[in-house]
Amino acid sequence: MTKINSKNIVDLIEDIFLRRGAESYLGEQVTMAQHMLQAAQCAEESGADNEQIVAALLHDIGHYKNEIPESALAKGINNFHEEAGANFLEDFFPASVVEPIRHHVAAKRYLCAVRLDYFERLSPASIHTLNLQGGPMTDKEIREFEKNQYLNQCINLRYWDDEAKDPNRKNPPFSYYKPLLESLVS
Ligand SMILES: [Fe+2]
Questions:
Q1: Residues 57, 80: Cα–Cα separation, whole Å
Q2: Beta-carbon neighbour count of residue 115 at 10 Å?
Q3: How much distance in Å is there from the Cα of 65 to the middle of ligand 1?
Q4: Distance linking the first and last C-alpha atoms of the chain
Q5: If exposure means fewest CB atoms within 10 Å of the residue's CB, which of 24, 88, 108, 125 is most exposed?
Q6: What percent of the chain has pLDDT over 70?
Q7: Measured in angstroms, how far is the CA atom of residue 35 from the centroid of ligand 1?
Q8: What's the gap in Å between 124 CA and the centre of ligand 1?
Q9: What is the Å distance from ligand 1's center to 139 Cα?
Q10: What is the pLDDT of residues 10-60, one digit of tens each?
Q11: Ligand 1 centroid from CA 74, angstroms
């Protein structure tokens, strides 16, 4: 595997999108690429800042586990997709991008516990994984989660994630977001 650095990380991510974007997304009506591109589009349409748009664009990159270098996977405890993705990206992108990605599944468990109307937004596949992910948070978990400095960004990302599953929606190609990604690499 090519050594990843700040100069080639965006090309590498683009390559993953182009080579593997057409793969299906866990029982949803959209492909993986459509899902992540639509999430970024939802963020942009909501007037989100660049970090949030990029977080939405990359939030499920951890599903491509065999594209992620061993060194990043070695940092993880369970390497669920949100952790694997965040550990992969944290060497190149700011915490404001990486932390919402790390917590986007926790945010679903959080919202299921604190917002009564949230559960209705979930797709059948997402309800199924909710149960595997531990179900709604307990009160103790809620209190812990609310200490997160990026709480609002985590919640926003979660809503875009849930919205980005529309097979009829037209979304921009990856190349549209490439300059934005490049501007945030450090
Ligand atoms: Fe997602």
A1: 18
A2: 11
A3: 15
A4: 21
A5: 24
A6: 99
A7: 7
A8: 14
A9: 25
A10: 999 999 999 999 999 878 999 999 999 999 999 999 999 999 999 999 999
A11: 23
Ligand 1 mean position, distance from CA 58 (Å) = 9
Residue 31: Cβ-neighbour burial (10 angstroms; 0-12, 13-18, 19+): middle
161 alpha carbon – ligand 1 mean position (Å): 5
Ligand 1 center from residue 21 Cα (angstroms) = 13
Tell me which of 181 and 3 has the higher pLDDT: 181
Q: Measure Cα distances from 175 to 86, 172, 183 in Å.
A: 22, 8, 13
> Average per-residue pLDDT in the chain?
95
Enter the pTM of the model: 0.95
Distance 126 CA to ligand 1 centre (A): 9
Q: What is the mean pLDDT of residues 86-99?
A: 98
- What the block records as the tokens of 130 is 């909710």
What's the topology of domain 9-161+174-184? Answer: Hypothetical protein af1432 (1.10.3210)
What confidence score (pLDDT) does residue 78 get?
Answer: 83
